[in-house]
């Protein structure tokens, strides 16, 4: 069965996308992954830190998905970046998040990044504000700043963008379970479907 993603009003709306190109560099890193990579259900999420629907997904679904499903090894959970070109903060947010991931603090940084974007309401996020998030979660700031300034993990973001374009997705967030898009209309619906898939 193939599921199509449907975001209900509680997620505001799905952020539309278009094909984008970014430069590549030599640094590599794996995607942020949590839980059991051999679990029956492998969940993959494409998201954008500035996307209102993604911000609401993080508020309503992400915490439970991470803590009650991934960190209890019921599922494998992988995060993919898709910074939309019409969101001016999104690329910098994604790059900073991957640098936090290199310091083993991805989930903490991502939570703080979504919260910051929620308060900004389309206003510019400064490098100093991202640095403060990194400081607040006790990242090594020399490593973090070097990573951000030198765009260490743009290559990984580029891979995520290429995968998105290949899959011809149309909005964020997009949630896949075992390479099939998950169709849900509410938090309850999301977890009911997921529970059925991991039985």
Automatic annotation (TrEMBL):
Any matching Pfam family: Thioredoxin_4
Domain Thioredoxin-like fold: 28-192
Keyword annotations from UniProtKB, A to Z: Disulfide bond, Oxidoreductase, Redox-active center, Signal
MF terms (GO), sorted A to Z: oxidoreductase activity
Matches recorded under InterPro entries: Thioredoxin-like_fold (IPR012336), Thioredoxin-like_sf (IPR036249)
Homology family: Belongs to the thioredoxin family. DsbA subfamily.
Protein name as it appears in the record: Thioredoxin-like fold domain-containing protein
